[in-house]
Amino acid sequence: MIRSYKQPQTIEEAVALKKEQPDADYFAGGTCINHADCTQTYTHVISLDKLGLDSIEIVDGVVRIGSMTTFQNLVDSPLIMPVVKDAARAIYSRNVRNMATIGGNLASCWTHSAMIPALTALKSVIELSTKEDLPIEEFLDSQSEALITAVKIPLSNRACSVKRVRRSSGSKTLLSFAVSLELSEDGMCIDPIVIATGFAEVPVRLSEIETLLTKRKEHSVFEFDLAFRAMKELSTDEHSSKAYKTYISARTVVACAEQCKEVLA
Amino acid sequence: MKVNFTLNDVPRTEAVSVNENLQEMLQRIGMISVRDSDNHRGFVGSDTILFDGVPVNAGLMIAAQINGHSITTAEALSTIERPLSPVQSAMIDAGVVQSGYNAPAAALLITELLARKADPSKAEIKEALSSLYNRATGYEQFFTAVELAKKRIIDEKATMKVSDEFRDDLKYVGKAHRKVDGAKLVRGDRAFVEDMVLPGSYILKMLHSPHASAYIMNIDTTEAEALPGVRLVLTYKNVPDNYYTPAGQGFPEPSPWDRRMFSQKVNHVGDRVAAVVADTEAIALTALERIKVEYEVLKPVFTIEEAEAEGSPIVHNSVVSYVVGAPDDLEEKNKNADPRDGRIEIQFPIGADPHANKAASVSGSIGDVEKGFAEADTVIERTYETAQFQCTPCETHIVYTKMDGDRLVIHASTQVPFFVRRIVSKIIGIDENKIRVIKERVGGGYGSKQEVLLEDVCAYATWITKKPVLFHFTREEEYTNSVSRFPMKITVKIGAKKDGTFTAMYMDLKANNGPYGNHCLTVPMNGCSKSLPLYLSDNIAFDVNVFYSNIMPTGAYQGYGAPKANFALHMAIAELSEKLGIDMLEVVEKNRVDEGDTLEILRCLGEGREGTPATIKSCGLAASVSEGAKMIEWGKKEESSDIDIKIGKGMALIQQGSGLPGLDISNADVKMLNDGSVIIHSGGADLGTGLDTISVKMTAEILNMDPERITILSGDTDQTPFDTGAFASSGTFFSGGAVNNAAEELKKKILKTASEMIGEPVEDLNLQFPEKVNGLKGSVTFREIAQATHGGESEGQLIGSASFTCDDASFPYGAHFAQVAVDRRTGEVKVQKYYALQDCGTPINPELAEGQIYGAVMKSIGHTLYEEVKLSPEGKNLTTDLESYGAPLIGDIPEDFKVKLVETTDPYGPFGSKSVSEIAMNGAAPAIANAIHDALGIWIRELPITPEKILRALGKIK
Ligand SMILES: Cc1cc2nc3c(=O)[nH]c(=O)nc-3n(C[C@H](O)[C@H](O)[C@H](O)COP(=O)(O)OP(=O)(O)OC[C@H]3O[C@@H](n4cnc5c(N)ncnc54)[C@H](O)[C@@H]3O)c2cc1C
Ligand code: FES
User: Fold this and answer.
1) Does the beta-carbon distance from A7 to B68 stay under 8 Å?
2) Which of A47, A105, A109, A134 to mutate to test the pocket of ligand 1 (most atoms within 8 A of CB)?
3) Is the peptide bond before B300 cis (omega within 30 degrees of 0)?
4) Which residues have C-beta within 8 Å of that of residue B832, sequence separation ≥ 6?
């Protein structure tokens, strides 16, 4: 139960409040914190509402997105690349997109994170109030409690595609994937990144799948079938079978890769 | 803490506790339009507000967040000068304000959209409404509402055609007309049960069973009772020992009385264990945690196969008794009953054998099916299965009870106010004259509010404490303690000649009844009675067997058993057609019924009593089929540019009834007031579908007056005469019929009085619009007549009183057509086209009738493709929120979605009307499943049709 709600006016003030009360948490849109199914307990919160962290700009080949930027701002902004807009649409409800922030998404415990796969695949960097920039994977590993001030997405030759598997437009996501890659001059996939949700409580990087994508022009779904079948993280549950999850994962990843190649071609 | 904010343009300061939910806080300060449908999960959108001009869900915020911000609620949309904004009036006129629970939220969303985009595209409208769950009318008419609102923003008087019009000879009936309760619903005025709750009322909270089947060995409530603020704790030990069925059906009910307010045995995960009544919700919840319960856990039964297997656990090992018609071996069977299982009282034989887990059964036949199958050139026999689906009304079940002197007042969200009174009276043991039930506006029922699910315990709590008590289901309780559609396994066997003529039809329907037998006979039996009579054959037979189990409770749901049996029947017809090598439509046309046909099979399909054959007096099937086939270009193969996307078309015929002839009864009074205006007192229960509007329009038509001068009061057991309620598609036909008859009675009295006043015989008089009686020589106005009959020299106020009963059946008919695109790679299905053609006789409110159809089709598309209640191996419901359950949103609507009302005139219904909404549930599953077969050549015989099942049928996964 939330007992105190502080509304600092500056980043410094917010960070100071957190220092004073280490068990306090930052409070962005509140869609996770206030959600009926939230598993965490929040007692003292520090609102980020007044810190002016909601700008989007392009500086030095990087799209810098303030952490308080809402999902709907991402959808609406001309500066944001289509794949990030697509990722933002994982939250089907526009009302919720008007509230949910990119910073909150990175720090929240939503199993099917809308943003983490895409941002990771795009090699994003997380800017913290310490003025330190952490590559997103390092940030996620660090379980940092620092204030996220921005997300920086490098503009590169990398193409990225996200896809989700769900029954209806607003139903729970079963699996989701983000695939990014570059193409060599002779059309080979290089440096692919594949991130998935639905395999564990948090998004996971699928290095076996990346290996299958690497240095190939064409991709045989069959190989991906075998690789996904071997993954013990995919199991039968009340909603679907392992066979289905394996099958659909292989097709979805290949479809993402094809889309990336199309964009780059 | 204090928050400073602007509320609807007025600066304001409010003291709030830091963690107070914003939706709750806004309701607390009077912004009652900001409702909660999902316990703050952001799915339904009833809690929409504008936060600095941007739509958000108040339920996902705490009040502290609004400090320094501006909040707009739907209360701001109308003003004293302008009682309805252009968007609000457009929504009502387009027909989207029906149950209306989140209509204020929709109005805000559209207002914000139009402020942002003066001329939004369809995609933009869909995006703006992506935050709204609308179960009542689906989503299609919102596009019309936006179109009309756009015009009205420019010119407030603008109009447009919102639906087809019918009956040129009539002024109001058959034309769109502003729904009489539309304004108060769309504005978010006080209308629902929750709006009636007085400060200081007690809150009732329920302790639920964690086990699917168990005896309560010990229950200790002392710690809970000791908690300050706890007023009452109820368990099986201290409640009346009365059994009942929650099914709101006519007495004596064809449902076993197998429920007690609390029992020593729990029969499903979530079943009632104890109730706490306390000063606040927080105290009640804490008290629940302090109740100590020891269970003896029993092996549960979940499937039909488990339930019917020899030696399986007995769900109700109770002492069974019959009021009439006890079987000879009853005493023998009762010998092994366990006293902890309590009793089951059965009113008359319904084919039950609870000791063998059988809740009900019925069989019947005409002709000789074996002979019929022997004569066939081709016989097909297939089994189809359907899952458990939830009604999911936006307003979860709620009741508020209070005392008025020595009388109990029940504010209910119910389809059956008079049965609530009867059942509560029976359970608590007080006379009906001591109880008043007021049906408030109902925020969606769809059958689930035909059940008395919380009124008994809340009323009892008030009766004991003499204090007002509120009991409101959470969304999770809605999933575990409300009713749902019975899972069924249906085998259909059809024999046909080479040319497609049916020689015999057989349906074997097995239903999984769940823990309690409310509607256990009528819902499954309706599967047969609302599907088989669509086709003619001399030889028809059916068997219905219904089994108790420990799944989530089942019961009434719009359409009863028809949507499932109709799925099975039309799948079998499609499979038969394929085998015969004849186009399905040809087979349908060859065998379907038509006007003038007599339905012999209905002889064996009475609702718990002997049925009677009926002759079809009006039937729109021919027009529905031919027009629908034209619209969808039946027979034309569509190709996609993507080779993996296959397109197919499917169809199904549908039918339902119009109330229960010989069983239902409605009553109404229509009274003339002192100034000649009129008030209707109708026992009918308007669920938001527009029944009150129907009553007003029919009265206006009969009395030749402006509907504005007619008011209706309905569904109040003190103030209105008896009505069986709104179920089995009875509203327009029965309740409307009673008002129609009462208005005709009043008309007679008006003419008689006028004849005396102007001295001319009644035969020479006629009514002239508005409110005038003309003779050959003189005339008199309603006002003059009213004044004359309100004085001491008169015979008294003019009141027309009448009832409506009917022994004749009126069947609404229709044909639904679907076109789907299926992705062979992923198994994903897109409904590209959906055309629902329906005959409801004269559509009294065409725009509302269309809304009912759009809503029913969307529900059934949900059941066909997305929705499903899933249980854990222990029987715990894993889908207790709308997101996990898969409820369809605006993103799931067919790309091209049309409803067409086919006009017929029925001889029995008022103004030639028949029922409209339940029937619309029956087409989507078979039409879509057949379309999938047309696309891919596979038969999916199990609902819902998931991508996984499609891939399996395609052999892509094992
Ligand atoms: C109907 C619905 C559907 C949803 N669907 C999805 C979905 O499909 N995918 C998905 O990922 N999410 C989904 N969500 C969850 C949620 O909306 C998002 O995760 C959202 O982005 C969280 O952002 P927020 O601003 O609301 O975070 P908050 O609730 O304010 O905070 C969440 C967590 O992040 C921390 N935090 C917030 N901002 C910062 C910061 N700048 N620096 C450090 N820590 C911070 C908080 O302390 C808290 O622990 C859904 C929510 C709803 C209601
Ligand atoms: S569920 Fe608690 S922060 Fe996401």
Assistant:
1) yes
2) A105
3) no
4) B647, B819, B820, B821, B894, B895, B896
A vs B, Cβ pairs < 8 A, gives 144
pLDDT along chain B (958 residues), means of 10: 97 96 97 97 98 98 97 96 96 96 98 98 98 96 98 96 96 96 97 97 98 98 98 98 96 96 98 98 98 98 97 97 96 96 97 97 96 98 97 98 98 97 97 98 95 98 98 98 97 98 98 97 94 96 98 95 97 98 98 95 76 90 98 97 97 91 90 98 93 96 98 97 86 91 98 97 97 97 96 91 90 96 97 97 94 97 97 97 97 98 91 89 98 98 98 96
E strands, B551-677, where? 598-599, 614-615, 645-655, 666-672
Interface predicted TM-score of the whole assembly (ipTM), two decimals: 0.97
Task: Considering every ligand atom shown, identify the ligand nearest to the alpha carbon of residue A31 and give its number.
Answer: 1
- DSSP for B221-283, please give it: -HHHHHSTTEEEEE-TTSS---EE--B--PSSPSS-B-EESS-SEE-STT-EEEEEEESSHHH
Which chain A residue is nearest to residue B873, measuring alpha carbons? Answer: A238
- pTM value > 0.95: yes
Q: B826–A167: do the CB atoms touch at under 8 Å?
A: no
Q: How many CB atoms lie within 10 A of CB B708?
A: 12
Q: CB under 6 Å to ligand 2: residues? A: A 32-33, 35, 38-40, 108-110
Residue minimizing CA distance to atom 1 of ligand 2: A38
One-letter identity of residue B214: A
From the alpha carbon of A90, which atom of ligand 1 is closest?
8
Quote the CA–CA distance of A126 and A134 in Å, as a whole number. 5
| Cβ distance of B56 and A95 shorter than 8 Å | yes
| Atom of ligand 1 at shortest range from CA of A35 | 53
Asked whether the beta carbons of A5 and A47 are under 8 A apart, the reply is: yes
Q: Whose CA is nearest to atom 28 of ligand 1?
A: A30
